[in-house]
Design goal:
single chain; Elongation Factor Tu (Ef-tu), domain 3; SH3 type barrels; six-stranded mixed beta sheet; 2 helices; elongated
Length: 169
């Protein structure tokens, strides 16, 4: 049996753009050239796509999608999450860099080293990245993913140290 390769979500098709089947992508990375370096991308059902990035528009990217030639077909892709095989991503060499996907499920520790919860997601609603944290007890909450609130991320030990103020707890 073939091993299933891990996939990482790197973008979402936000909407159609124009009448020729182009789309606007919300890209979750720093280096849009990943679309030039990888031949195929996938949706959550495993359907293959290829993209040709055209230009930025505000905080999105306009792209051609293989086999999509008109606005109606492009509209059908609205909201589609786009994944890449993790092996196609560049290797991270700096210990202070990581893929957000690698943080999901990591333990969250308070300043005294006590486990206070786990990372369940990383969101960005337009004002910056937020860690979604499920505490040991109580409801999930969001914490800004900044050095002020998250002074340490240690992938090797599988932990994230947070310093939330009382407004988040």
């Amino acid at each position: 049996m073939a091993e299933i390769e891990e996939k990482i979500k790197i973008a979402k098709i936000a909407t159609a753009h124009g009448i020729k089947g182009m789309v606007k992508l919300d890209f979750y990375g720093d280096d849009i050239s990943i679309f030039e370096k990888s031949e195929y991308f996938f949706d959550s059902k495993g359907n293959k796509f290829s993209f040709k990035i055209k230009n930025p528009v505000k905080n999105q990217w306009v792209a051609e999608v293989n086999n999509i030639r008109d606005r109606n077909d492009a509209e059908k892709l609205r909201g589609t999450d786009i994944y890449i095989n993790k092996s196609n991503l560049p290797e991270i060499k700096d210990e202070d860099e990581f893929y957000y996907e690698d943080l999901i499920g990591m333990n969250v520790l308070d300043k005294d080293g006590n486990i206070s919860g786990k990372i369940t997601a990383i969101q960005n609603f337009g004002a910056g990245d937020l860690l979604e944290i499920k505490p040991v007890s109580g409801s999930s909450y969001y914490l800004p993913f900044t050095k002020e609130y998250v002074p340490e991320v240690n992938l090797t030990l599988g932990k994230i140290v947070i310093l939330p103020d009382d407004a988040f707890l």
